[in-house]
Amino acid sequence: MTEQRPATPIDAIAEGWVSTLVDLVPDVAIWIGVPGRTGEYGDLSPEGHDRLASATRELVTQLEAAAPTDAVDEVTKTDLLAESRLSLEAHDAGLHLRDLNVIASPAQEIRESFDLMPTATESDWATIAERMSNLPGAVAGYIATLRAGAERGIVPARRQVREVAEQARRNGRPDGFFDQFAAGASVEGSELPGALRADLERGAAASAEAYRQLGEFLDSELLPVAGEADGVGREHYALRSRHFLGAEIDLDETYAWGIDELERMIDEQTRVASEVLSGATVAEAVAHLEQDPSRKLHGTDALRAWMQELSDRVVDELGRTHFAIPEPVRALECMIAPTQDGGIYYTGPSDDFSRPGRMWWSVPEGVTEFDTWREKTTVFHEGVPGHHLQIGQAVYNRAELNTWRRQLAGTSGHAEGWALYAERLMEELGYLDDPADRLGMLDGQRMRAARVVLDIGVHLGKPKPRIRGLEDLDADGDWDADFALAFMRANVNMDDAFVRFEVNRYLGWPGQAPSYKVGQRIWEQIRDDAQSRAGAKFSFRDFHKNALDLGGVGLDTLRAALLP
Length: 564
Known about the structure:
The protein has helices at 9-24, 27-32, 46-65, 71-92, 106-112, 122-151, 158-171, 177-183, 194-222, 234-245, 251-276, 282-290, 300-320, 372-382, 387-396, 403-408, 412-428, 435-460, 481-491, 496-508, 514-534, 540-549, 555-562; strands at residues 296-298, 332-336, 344-347, 357-361, 369-371. With 564 residues, it is mainly alpha-helical. The chain starts with 8 loop residues before the first helix and ends with a helix.
């Protein structure tokens, strides 16, 4: 690390904001691995949201009055102000009153916090038991917020309500997550004291009952008044797009670009399919690879072990050649998630690296076989040089960055755009020379291009597009959920359970899915502009280092910092 940079008044404001968040939203302490009231939940009721908004307004006032002392301060003030103002705009629009979707809403986050809680000591398990005992209150507050939204006519779509109700019922089963989590509690293989185990069992039962009540509320109260339309409309969508990108884009131009990019991906994938099997179509190449036992993994244990071996090897090799990877960042754990919702995601290391960065795979029920050619690039995306290098490097950079910059700043477009950028970088570095692995990478890149078109199309109610290479799709009328599902099935080679989950995710989480490919586009534009300015003096290694040293930022802030 470089010499410690002296803390500034703006750093103090940012550190104070982290402390405020840790107090108002104890989950933040769990996410970043700092002390806090981790046995408790934040107030998810309308009053709790109002308190957070009030604190955010105070933050904006402080930042507006503060003068930056250096370039690091400029980035902190610019990005924290932009994020805070946008969050207030979303609050004033009442988006928290309809915050329900299949992947990233309080319905999932209330439970997911347990995945990151330490379990090494009796004290850790006592905190977990306390948190379980407080979970019913968190669910009650969340229900109160959704109920307040229903009273004002601000409701999620019916499809999301139905799907999340089913998730809640799974969490509420007697043999569901909470029961199994409590039953597996131990310290170094030893049984816990009887009183603590009884607390865990009571907490697990109360948590499961709370999720059953959430499911009942969703079915009986919210579903009858939920919205018929899956699309949220241009105004809501534009706000969410800005949130996920940290940049404002022309949605219509981006939609047209997405169509062009998808057609380009189809052409490239078709060429590579012929390399896999001479003269084969994409479907024929995929069918050929799916019959190759040397590229097949059986069971989640085999999947996890394969992911870990590949990740460890790449970290070692890239750390000796293309990136300076600090020792704490070299630790990356590949995990099978304790849920079966279908997502693949990354969680960053704790602030002191006592909890390493982790790559999680939530495998849907019934899925037992995995193809290495499909998933090799996923390890690069979630691990190194993707999310783990990006986020781990920021956490490590204590010499320059305050806690907010290291742990909480950034957008999906910055993070996911970099991860897609990293996939293409690994192709350039020779890690995808096998045409089968390259076909898998292109399958993911094509999916991300398709999501740009689908997400903007369905939420803005655009006419169905006519895509070169997809002439069999019915292109009459406007986008709807049925066409979205058919469209994704035509563009990916995935188990149908994954496809259904993905489409439901896009329908309920507007603006997030395009942030991957749009973020990649902006990353590449910034790099190309930097290369054009520097000419022969341009260094990719230096560009990447300078970019990652900033930590997470919005993409407008990234552009301003790298292209002053």
